[in-house]
Design a protein that fits this description.
The complex is a heterodimer of chains A (276) and B (434). Chain A has 14 helices and no strands. Classes of the chains: A mainly alpha (276), B alpha/beta (434). The interface between A and B is large, with 31 and 43 residues.
Chain lengths: 276, 434
């Protein structure tokens, strides 16, 4: 009897999880489907779900008009570069906060997080002027730095949470065995926190990949990533939804694939230490 | 031998230097409109003629506005040519942010640009942007539904006629709405439409001392008329409809009439996308007999930001893209219906172009729009669907949000107008106009 109840609950839970999952995924699915329709089918009312003549014309048109490879490469460099740089800075910062806390550590953490609440547009002009002054407007290096700074509070917070779960005694033992500070962080702490660091990196790559304010406002032709690629197909005066959907699908495909293959690590990292 | 080698080296060096000076790479920021995308496709023709390479930055209209405004106001130099409109050009020209275009070649024939366009893209008589294409607004209507309703569209109808015809054409059982109009918030969306409509009802944004005029009967009449008509004959959720939503409805045969940009004519008569391509008629935007029609005037134009390192090459591009030759090029490759309209007078004298069904009505609509004299009562601003002052975009966006809320039934027309009055007066006072 008890087993029957468990199975019933399992079925309900699974069904509910699938329903929620499909609901969340539906806009992406609809975008992908629309990318294979003609422009007329894309705006049809009632909407056509699957019963349409599938076409690759939109992808062909997008590839003919835009240099997709360049946008993709820029996205990879900007998202990857900002993530690596962020981790290099955040690991020692999180270590010091987790293992050598001061009276103000909690305040500093909260202050760091509070910088995320500042509307980006409020600092657009100062940052734009700085980029002009340093000659890095429309360059990948500017975006690597800015996206790193934007995401740094989240990286530090996540790493701090993971590091707090690691017993300080292990680090003490390493110190007693003669490990220097560098050895302690690099060879003892970091390997133990690999799952946490990996999930933090993945989350940061996703955030940087999808960032669409700075990447649109600080780039022109040379450093524009995939967010600019999508924006180039959006129009308030003309129905180009099918082409926009094709461009969107091409822009999200790499990060979707990355997320799919690393979902196990991502989930385990995000839920690390959540249940005691 | 040494002399000979030196001569070769000097010749090679001078050739490299000369070719470096002659062939530049220019960066152009533009919008994702059909005509602009078509232009990008012909870039090779420009490169073949001049040797200059072109880098395109195509963005959605609102993103582009923010992007180029940031760049030009900080002298960022990210772009050599910017695609801007009639709203920005006189303001930026007055600020000294744009390179004057009064020295274009004789071959270019700047005098051929339609006077309304040249005027709207100038400041103090100096042209600061060359129109790539121009537009006004007009009525696009279903001839079959009009006939079925037993009515005949005059060439220059009144709003009363439009309201009556909309009611007669509406068939809720067949999902046909008598009229589709913009209601979406945004100064360039519903804000542009209602401002142009209000001109024909005798309303204006400001009196001559820059006091807001939303507390006048003219504005109340405009909004009440609009809402009554749309509630009776418009599509469900019209308060959220902009150009694209109405285009979609019209192309699917769900609108009896649509009053919007003249460039839409090529979309609704294109049989590939429109189910009603062969049933569309055109008429001038309506009036109320007060002497002003409700059509607007707009141009997407190419301008050069002051301080660009590639001014000469940028001017060559503008001469190429807005020339008569470019129009001929597009006509030869894609037909006369696809050439950029509304910029040059000679286009409308061309017998081939005169065969395009919406050509004459587009020209008539453009010619009947006067940005310097757009309101019945005198006003201190230039512009029809906008007032060409830097503060307008922000104010009109807020005001149009209040109007959209009223269309959606979230507040009354009176409440929306009272809020619009306060928003506008406060902003104008803060900006030092009052």
């Amino acid at each position: 009897m008890a087993r029957n109840v468990t199975n019933k609950r399992k079925i309900i839970n699974t069904t509910a999880a699938w329903a929620v999952g499909l609901l969340i995924f539906f806009p992406i699915l609809w975008t992908i489907l629309t990318s294979f329709k003609t422009e007329a089918q894309a705006i049809a009312d009632p909407p056509i779900f699957l019963g349409f003549d599938w076409t690759l014309e939109n992808y062909k048109a997008v590839l003919e008009r835009s240099n997709y490879g360049r946008f993709l490469w820029n996205s990879i460099i900007i998202a990857g570069g900002s993530t690596i740089l962020g981790i290099i800075i955040a690991v020692p910062a999180a270590w010091s906060m987790a293992f050598v806390p001061s009276k103000r550590t909690k305040d500093i953490l909260l202050w760091m997080l509070s910088t995320k609440m500042l509307p980006a547009v409020g600092v657009l002009y100062p940052i734009y002027l700085l980029c002009i002054r340093f000659g890095i407007l429309d360059s990948k290096i500017a975006l690597v730095f800015i996206l790193m700074l934007i995401n740094l509070p989240i990286i530090v917070w996540m790493l701090y949470t993971y590091f707090k779960e690691i017993p300080g005694e292990i680090l003490e033992a390493a110190r007693m065995d003669g490990a220097s500070l560098k050895d302690e962080v690099l060879y003892v702490l970091t390997p133990m926190a690999i799952p946490g660091i990996a999930s933090t990196m993945l989350l940061n790559v996703i955030l940087a990949w999808n960032e669409a304010f700075w990447t649109l406002n600080l780039t022109a032709a040379k450093a524009a990533p995939l967010t600019a690629f999508i924006a180039s197909y959006s129009s308030p005066e003309g129905l180009f939804y099918a082409k926009l959907s094709a461009a969107s699908t091409m822009a999200i495909a790499p990060i979707l694939i990355l997320g799919w293959f690393s979902q196990k690590q991502l989930v385990s990292g995000l839920t690390f230490g959540a249940v005691k | 031998m040494f002399f000979k080698n030196s001569l070769y080296a000097a010749t090679a060096l001078s050739l490299i230097t000369a070719s470096g000076a002659a062939a530049d790479t220019i960066t152009i920021a533009t919008v994702n409109n059909g005509d602009m995308i078509r232009m990008q496709g012909y870039t090779d023709d420009f490169t073949a003629k001049t040797g200059h390479e072109v880098e395109w930055v195509t963005l959605e209209e609102n993103v582009l506005r923010q992007r180029v405004t940031t760049d030009i106001s900080t002298k960022g130099g990210a772009f050599d040519i910017m695609t801007i409109g009639m709203y920005e050009t006189p303001i930026w020209g007055a600020n000294g942010w744009l390179v004057p275009l009064n020295d274009l070649s004789a071959e270019y024939d700047a005098a051929d640009i339609l006077p309304a366009m040249a005027d709207g893209l100038s400041h103090d008589g100096t042209l600061y942007a060359a129109p790539f294409y121009g537009e006004s607004s007009m009525i696009m209507y279903r001839k079959d539904l009009m006939e079925k309703a037993g009515m005949e569209m005059p060439k220059a109808p009144t709003w009363e006629f439009i309201k009556e015809a909309a009611a007669a054409m509406t068939d809720r059982d067949d999902d046909i709405n008598g009229i589709c109009l913009r209601g979406k918030a945004g100064w360039g969306e519903g804000g542009a439409f209602i401002t142009a409509m209000s001109n024909s009802f005798g309303a204006r944004w400001f009196d001559e001392d820059w006091n807001a005029q939303f507390d006048t009967d003219a504005w109340a009449n405009t909004l009440n008329f609009y809402k009554d008509m749309m509630d009776e004959s418009g599509p469900a959720g019209y308060a959220a409809n902009g150009f694209n939503e109405n285009l979609s409805l019209f192309q699917q045969g769900k609108c009896g009439m649509w009053i919007d940009a003249t460039v839409a004519a090529s979309f609704v008569t294109n049989a590939d996308d429109s189910t009603v391509a062969d049933k569309v008629g055109f008429a001038l935007a309506p009036d109320t007999g007060l002497g002003k029609r409700s059509n607007w005037l707009w141009a997407w134009a190419l301008a050069i930001p002051a301080g660009t390192q590639n001014e000469a090459a940028a001017k060559e591009f503008i001469e190429w893209a807005t020339s008569k030759d470019y129009i001929e090029l597009v006509a030869a490759k894609e037909g006369w219906a696809n050439v950029p309209p509304g910029a040059r007078a000679s286009l409308y004298e061309n017998p081939e172009y005169q065969k395009v069904p919406f050509a004459q009505m587009t020209l008539d609509s453009i010619l009947s729009a006067d940005p310097r004299n757009s309101t019945v009562e005198p006003s201190p601003y230039v512009g029809i669907q906008f007032a060409a002052i830097p503060e307008f975009a922000g104010i009109a966006t807020e005001v149009s949000q209040e109007f959209s809320a009223a269309y959606a039934g979230q507040q009354t027309i009176e409440e929306a107008l009272a809020k619009a009055q306060d928003i506008t007066n406060e902003a104008m006072e803060a900006a030092g106009y009052r």
